[in-house]
Design goal:
The protein is α/β, with parallel strands linked by helices. The protein has helices at residues 2-5, 9-34, 70-73, 112-129, 147-157, 191-202, 215-219, 246-267, 280-292, and strands at residues 53-58, 80-84, 91-96, 133-136, 179-184, 206-213, 226-229, 236-239, 270-275. α2 packs across α4 and α4 packs antiparallel against α5 (147-157). InterPro entries: DUF58.
Length: 295
Amino acid sequence: MAETALHTPASLRARSEDAAATLPGLLMSAERLAATILLGEHGRKRAGPGEAFWQFRAAQPGDSRRSIDWRQSARGDAHYVRETEWQAAQTLMLWVDDAASMRFAAGGRVSKLRRAQTLALALAVLAVRAGERTGLAALPEPPRGGRAQLMRMTEALMKGGEVPDYGAPRPQVMPFAARAVFLSDFLGPVEPVVEALTSAADRGVQGVLVQVLDPDEEAFPYDGRTVFESMSGAVRFETLKAGQLRGDYLSRLKARRAALQDLCARTGWRFQLHHTDRTAEAALLSLYTALERRR
């Protein structure tokens, strides 16, 4: 009876309204977080098509007469060319793992999913404010700019629904030479992640792989009789000696992280680890800096 009630139109509407009510809160949190980053001119200091003045340089063979700034050249014996700043829009693609494992939270901390959502949206806010396009790698829609795109992304991130225990990036062709950020606990099968990053690297896409974990997943503070259950409830395991599992668990976690780091090294991506007991501001600054270095 209880399971049937979950699928009634009234219950579906109620859950949809609850999800919609959280949209402004999530976006506001992301915007406040983004405000901690000083944008400036977003690091685009190189010559190219645009209107903003960048610098004068000495004229070289092959420069047209129209490109010479005669007012600046009249101040001396040499001819100078006026260069404008490159302002072509960049593209930032984001993937947030929304699998059941990302809902884990212990000790009153924020869930891995909420932290990943907030970080991703904060990056999107920074990109949009800088005149860039941004999008979600899990959606078929192309990346766009503007605040309307932020709202679309927020709605997609909060959509909910049936999800597996562990997530994986969906195969999708990303824009050539874009930047990307994948946020997940990466505790599921690693093969889809390898495929996604390899495909992205083939198109010149570089970015950051962010493993988001709760501190309890690192420390494994369990001993004695313990019942382990997946977040979806599909898997359940009971043991009387949980402490004896600690060594094997930590070894496998270490091996997984090493595999992710090796994958990033081979594809030109960066690997970052974030624990939910750390500040979101520090994580965002680290991500922002890593993406700026990829320009």
